[in-house]
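dumping this here before i forget
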Amino acid sequence: MHELSIVMSIIDIARDEAKKANVLKFSEIELEIGMLSGIEMNAFDFAWNEAVKLTILDSAVRVVSRPVGKAVCLECDANFDMLTLYDQCPVCQSPFTDIKQGKELRVKSLTTV
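structure:
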């Protein structure tokens, strides 16, 4: 369950940003977690609910955007959507792709109280 370590890293990022901004709490955190990031959202939600208790994010509203996977085929240059990391090009069936979107995992913004 690597989701717990990811949540702990997010808490560390928030703590570091709070020190820089000299704030005690955040009211909102916006996350971007791509559909191809390998994050299991049920496990992430469980880890989040347990890990943020009594932290700087305890009362923060969590907003999550989930960009879909997008890739370019390295054989025929077709652009296509990906549902999994192992999707082949729908035009030429090549497994060789350049993933352009969907693997994101980032804190987009933190809003103070």
